[in-house]
Amino acid sequence: MMTSPETYITDRLENAPYPELIREREKLIRLIRNYEKKEAAGDRSDPAWKRMPTPEVQYQLHLQYLGALCNLMQERYNSEYVRESRTLRDDVNSSNQKQTN
């Protein structure tokens, strides 16, 4: 079941660290590009076309999710990095260290 962009942000990402927001943004971009590539080729052979929501509905929701996520990222970046003088490099390095442990 697909949720609204507001619920997507609130339930999944509102308290996520910034590096996780970056990963989620990249995931959404991959999903969007994959759909666009298949749609441009006229490829509707995937069984997902027989399920609801259809890939074209999922595509539109992914675009909305991406927009909401980008708004959150802009707000978070401004408050956490610009105002607090933190660096993204420090957080990405810290996140990478946690993943390898």
Rg is 16 Å
Order of helices and strands: HHHH
The percentage helix is: over 70%
Overall mean pLDDT stands at 89
How are the SSEs ordered, and which strands pair?
Blueprint: H1 5-13, H2 18-41, H3 55-82, H4 88-100
Brief summary of the model shown:
By secondary structure, the chain is mainly alpha-helical.
Description of the structure:
The protein has 101 residues and is mainly α. It has one domain (5-100). The chain is 73% helix and 0% strand. It is built from four helices and no strands. The chain has helices at residues 5-13, 18-41, 55-82, 88-100. Helix 1 crosses helix 3 and helix 2 (18-41) packs antiparallel against helix 3. The model has no long low-confidence stretch (mean pLDDT 89).
Properties at a glance:
101 residues; mainly alpha
